[in-house]
Amino acid sequence: VQLQESGPGLVKPSQALSLTCSVSGGSITTTNYIWTWIRQPPGKGLEWVGAISDSGITFYSPSLKSRTSISRDTSRNQFTLQLSSVTPEDTAVYYCGELTSSWGQGTQVTVSS
Known about the structure:
The chain is mainly beta. It is globular and about 40 Å long. The strands form two sheets. The protein has a six-stranded mixed sheet with strand order 2-10-9-4-5-6, with no helix packed on it. It has strands spanning 2-6, 10-11, 17-24, 34-40, 47-53, 58-60, 68-73, 78-83, 92-98, 107-111. A hairpin with a 4-residue loop joins strand 7 (68-73) and strand 8.
């Protein structure tokens, strides 16, 4: 399975961030797959953001839950992360992946005015 993140590299504070993960070589509806978003702020460790299961059930980090939404488009074999009311603390490299197998190369998102 191959994954590729896409989205804006620069977002202004208080705006919403939207990232899409395009999946190839496998279906996002394959049983037992968990499609996941993680991020790594500069100089910090990896942080789990959230996930969506093969059946569309979503899971969110408690610390981000109020601002996070993960959805999917099965016709395009994509899943999307939306993070609202961003601040500079949301600046990070964002990765999408299947929890137990493959990960994208990551995409840098900077929150700045």
